[in-house]
Amino acid sequence: MTVIVVTGGIGSGKSEVCRILRTLGFRSQYDADTRAKALYEEHPSLLADIETSLGCSLKDDNDRFVSARLASIIFSDSKSLAVVENHLFPALMDDFNAFAGNCGDEYVVFESATVLEKPQFEGFGDKVILVDAPFETRLERACLRDGADREKVLARMRNQKLMNALSDGMEDPRIDCVILNDGTLEDLVRRTQMVINSLTL
């Protein structure tokens, strides 16, 4: 089995690339960011372990997980973020391995915005595709997609320091191919096809 990592900054279009890959036959896809959010509620002990480590409750009066409460804690506190990630990422990899082990396909696409930024994923994946676009283009897309305030999106984007550096031309030997998403959907389909052919043929 070959794991193809698709990554990119906010608004780059990595999810669109994954949708294109699905139409090209790469059906086994794992959305790490979506699964990470789900694991807080699905994993038998993850949330409780995080609450114990942080020393606070992350649930409401009805015992339901409040994601905004966790986000407010880790957004500007790097130590708390590290605590959460040290619990979350091992659970995420267990979840991915279970998914990959049951899919039965030759290729598995792993979509993640942060896989290159976190040491817990060092060496993960057989091929890495970076989806990129100019900063302002990514910002406009993210605001439109999320219906979010420009300054709030900017704050999130500024936290993606590696993605921004890559957009500015920094090279990273872990990246096998770059898909520049600065044109039409037809351009993106064509570029995705070319890249995936180069990686799998």
Describe the protein.
- By secondary structure, this protein is of the alpha/beta class.
- It contains nine helices and five strands, in the order βαβααααββαααβα.
- It has a five-stranded parallel β-sheet with strand order 2-3-1-4-5, sandwiched between helices.
- Helix 2 packs across helix 5, helix 3 runs antiparallel to helix 5 and helix 6 packs across helix 7.
- It starts with a strand and ends with a helix.
- The model has no long low-confidence stretch (mean pLDDT 93).
Features:
9 helices
Proportion of β residues? 5-15%
Uncertain segments: none
The largest pleated sheet is described as:
5 strands, parallel
Shape: globular
Using the CA coordinates, give the radius of gyration.
Answer: 18 Å
Residues in helix, %: 40-55%
Number of helices: 9
SSE ordering: EHEHHHHEEHHHEH
Mean pLDDT: 93
Strand order of the largest sheet: 2-3-1-4-5
Counting DSSP E segments of at least 2 residues, the number of strands comes to 5
Distance between the termini: 15 Å
